[in-house]
Amino acid sequence: xxxxxxxxxxxxxxxxxxxxxxxxGFCGVSMxxxxxxxxxxxxxxxxxxxxxxxxxxxxxxTHTEEYQGMKIGFIPVGESSIELLEDVxxxxxxxxxxxxxxxxxxxxxFEVDDINEALQELKAKGVRLIDETPRSGAHGMSIAFxxxxxxxxxxxxxxxxxxKDDHK
Length: 168
Ligand code: CMX
Known about the structure:
By secondary structure, this protein is an alpha+beta fold.
């Protein structure tokens, strides 16, 4: 009987400790990630890459634009998109990446419900940010990047539509 009571007390303590851990690990997160908005892919030539995605694969390009020295094409796949990025200025962020790594996945973008709050939260947690405040991204999004050195080598972008009609 006494042994049973001791075992119960021990089980209770272990459970409480587990809850403390869960609280510290998860309940301190208040930002909401709605979806993977897009995967950014660095390509040498947008038109060449589009041939594969729209002729080789059953996908369609729905939006193209020039943005900060890059030619960008969006290809929706379900709730997300592939964002193809070609350097046209010779000096964009994509140029440096292509020179170093060649073509390939460049970044992953998460759509959040409130980008300002999300950045505040990451900053408070000491996550190294490239952008401490949002700036205008492609396709009508407010965007901000975390530093790849702080995110296990994956460049991560947070984004939020600037108006309700925009998406990517
Ligand atoms: N993925 C993973 N690691 C990356 C990376 C990427 N896409 N880009 C750079 N890095 C790594 C580099 O390899 C380098 O690592 P080492 O120190 O081990 O060599 C380190 O990060 C620093 O890279 P760098 O190119 O020397 O440094 P810069 O500061 O000049 O640039 C970065 C890096 C991420 C700050 C810059 O590329 C940037 O600001 N990118 C964001 C801008 C962008 O991509 N815009 C397109 C947005 C389009 C949209 O979605 O709207």
